[in-house]
Amino acid sequence: MSSLLQRLLAAQDKAEVLVQALPWIREFAGQTIVVKYGGNAMVNDELKQAFVHDIMFFHHVGLKPVVVHGGGPQINSMLKRLGIESEFRGGLRVTTPEAMEVVRMVLAGQVQRELVSLINQDAPYAVGMSGEDAGLLKGRKRYIDIDGQKVDLGQVGDVHEVNPASLHDLIDNGRIPVVSTIAMDIEGDGILNVNADTAAAAIASALGANKLLMLTDVEGLYLDWPNKDSLVSEINASELAELLPKLDAGMKPKMEAALHAIDAGVQAAHIIDGRMAHSMLLEIFTDAGVGTRVTKDEK
Ligand SMILES: Nc1ncnc2c1ncn2[C@@H]1O[C@H](COP(=O)(O)OP(=O)(O)O)[C@@H](O)[C@H]1O
Ligand SMILES: CC(=O)N[C@@H](CCC(=O)OP(=O)(O)O)C(=O)O
After folding, report:
1. Do the annotations mark residue 76 as ligand-binding?
2. If we measure between CA atoms, which residue out of 26, 279, 278 comes closest to residue 270?
3. What is the structure's pLDDT at 299?
4. If you measure from the C-alpha of residue 110 to the centroid of ligand 1, how many angstroms do you get, rounded to a whole number?
5. Which domain holds residue 219?
6. What pTM value is reported for the model?
7. 71 ligand 1 Cβ < 6 A
8. 72 in a known ligand binding site
9. The domain spanning residue 223 has which CATH number?
């Protein structure tokens, strides 16, 4: 095959992809999309760059992305460096006052700063916020139930109230908010460590977002983890509610969050593999779709 013909065929493939994206771009333009970027998906610089390109793509085709970031592994390594013990119970970090200082420092001072600066290298749209800013996230101490026992997790919170006014201001001005998930404690004068999936779902609900995308380090939801044949591409709210008690630690807060968002009116929540470059674009703008889509029950 001549090289000219090869080039033409490759160009045609690209045109095909663009044409395929058109109906989705038309459908989603103007919609708010909350993207939860998990710490486990921030594997290397190339992937972070691909994430930033996808966010910019969303922005430029008229979607309104809001980034809510995690940073569990990054917090772990800082705690380790500082010699502070940390354990997880039910997928949540037991957070002592000492650990809370590190959580805030790593999320708002390191991970958020890095993402904001990466996005702003493309164009100066990103604005970092902590849930503490402008009353964005107000929380209440969260306890969990383990074998019938109420377990105290320290400074861990559930979102009680979201004040999305500051996010609306930013979005309306063409900005891309990048949110760290620390909440003000409404019952005290302290702060709370909120799981980033939980916070992303609460923010998506409060914004009336159309979609919640959750980038993680697995292909999607497995019905029978870790059986690799049990990956599910679509599941509705009732099916997920039934599955929830059987899920393992990491997936539990994530799927609870997805369900919460759907119940609150978000049209779909997608669990996507953040280790695959441009997985968000594939999920949103192509017919192929990757990952797991959680939808409302059919009426
Ligand atoms: N049913 C399941 N399907 C997919 N992953 C699961 C399941 N149960 C447990 N997991 C684990 O959950 C992990 C993702 O959750 P987590 O580590 O909290 O991610 P993130 O930091 O992105 O929020 C996966 O890497 C996997 O090990
Ligand atoms: C209470 C709780 O567990 N908070 C999390 C907050 C960060 C987070 O959720 O990060 P990922 O999305 O990367 O897991 C933590 O301390 O690790």
Report:
1. no
2. 279
3. 65
4. 23
5. 25-229+246-295
6. 0.94
7. no
8. yes
9. 3.40.1160.10
pLDDT per position as a tens digit, 157-181: 999 999 999 999 999 999 999 999 9
Digit-coded pLDDT (tens) for 201-228: 999 999 999 999 999 999 999 999 989 9
Residue 159: inside a domain: yes
What ligand has the least distance to the C-alpha of 141? 2
Q: Whose CA is nearest to atom 23 of ligand 1?
A: 38
Residue 67 in domain: yes
The number of domains in the chain is: 1
In short, whether 274's Cβ falls inside 6 Å of ligand 1 is: no
Local structure of residue 298 (DSSP, 8 states): P
Q: What are phi and psi of 234, to 5 degrees?
A: -150, 140
Nearest to 87 by CA among 160, 146, 147: 146
ipTM of the modeled complex: 0.96
The DSSP line for 146-202 is: ETTEEEEEEEEEEEEEE-THHHHHHHHTT-EEEEE-EEEETTSSSEEE--HHHHHHH
In a domain, 194, yes or no: yes
In a domain, 3, yes or no: no
Q: How confident is the model at residue 1 (pLDDT cuts 50, 70, 90)?
A: low
Cα 119 from Cα 114, distance rounded (Å)? 9
The residue among 72, 57, 1 whose CA lies nearest residue 24 is: 57
